[in-house]
Recover the amino acids of this structure.
């Protein structure tokens, strides 16, 4: 992805480049490429990246996208960790909205849930919700943008493009453990990924973290989530594993954590699983 400047307006845009030869070499490459265009043109929502234009040269295609200046959620988490180690970072005013606070988590989660509600209405599964794919639109406020629809698909089609896909550590159980060649799943898969992301925002640690990719995949497959707090541990574990019992984006939007939390300056303690009530996290998972 490159940053470009429009000469006559002096506006900046992001340009994502697709090399034609690489598309041809990939399995179902052109099908995936045109599918991504169709999906992005279908998604018109303030917290979803907009495809402004598509250009073509002899060797490449170019997606023209809005510039998101605030970095990714992964960048914000890494920046927050630096602040926790060196408090002097807080003097950098330009980065104040990149510090992970409860206000940040609540507002960003609300926006992500609104975006997932929109995708659900369109029958679209993103299938790769993770910190890297959530950007801040600018540095001055908390407005997120979901990007990268390369693995996305419509739910109601005969056969999914790329049946088993996603990023290890964020893949829903119904996808990563699927055995049927033509198995089906729904937009609820994105709620599991969002729950993993919420856990990461709250604890600064991945929910499934292995020493290598294989170990992370194995932990993700087992989905053995050990919540230490009694209020969380005693809840039905099928609410995590079974997509039919998993909370919906509409239900999550109305959850008390999203609707009723007032203390914007509250900081998550080092061991939040034992010190604060994170029941909402379990439900979103």
């Amino acid at each position: 992805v490159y940053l470009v400047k429009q000469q006559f307006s002096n506006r900046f845009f992001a340009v994502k480049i697709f090399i034609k030869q690489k598309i041809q070499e990939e399995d179902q490459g052109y099908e995936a490429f045109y599918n991504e265009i169709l999906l992005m043109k279908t998604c018109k929502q303030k917290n979803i990246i907009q495809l402004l234009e598509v250009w073509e040269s002899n060797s490449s295609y170019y997606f023209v996208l809005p510039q998101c200046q605030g970095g990714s959620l992964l960048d914000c988490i890494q920046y927050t960790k630096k602040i926790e180690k060196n408090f002097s970072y807080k003097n950098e005013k330009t980065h104040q909205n990149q510090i992970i606070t409860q206000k940040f988590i609540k507002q960003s989660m609300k926006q992500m849930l609104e975006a997932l509600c929109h995708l659900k209405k369109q029958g679209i599964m993103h299938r790769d919700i993770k910190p890297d794919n959530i950007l801040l639109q600018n540095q001055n406020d908390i407005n997120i943008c979901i990007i990268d629809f390369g693995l996305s698909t419509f739910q109601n089609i005969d056969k999914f493009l790329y049946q088993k896909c996603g990023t290890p550590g964020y893949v829903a159980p119904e996808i990563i453990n699927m055995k049927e060649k033509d198995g089906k799943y729904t937009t609820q898969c994105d709620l599991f990924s969002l729950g993993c992301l919420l856990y990461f925002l709250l604890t600064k640690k991945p929910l499934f973290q292995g020493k290598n990719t294989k170990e992370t995949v194995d932990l993700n497959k087992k989905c053995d989530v050990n919540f230490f707090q009694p209020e969380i541990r005693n809840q039905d574990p099928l609410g995590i594993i079974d997509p039919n019992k998993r909370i919906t984006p509409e239900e999550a939007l109305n959850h008390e954590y999203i609707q009723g939390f007032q203390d914007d300056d509250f900081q998550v303690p080092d061991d939040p699983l034992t010190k604060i009530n994170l029941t909402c996290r379990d439900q979103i998972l």
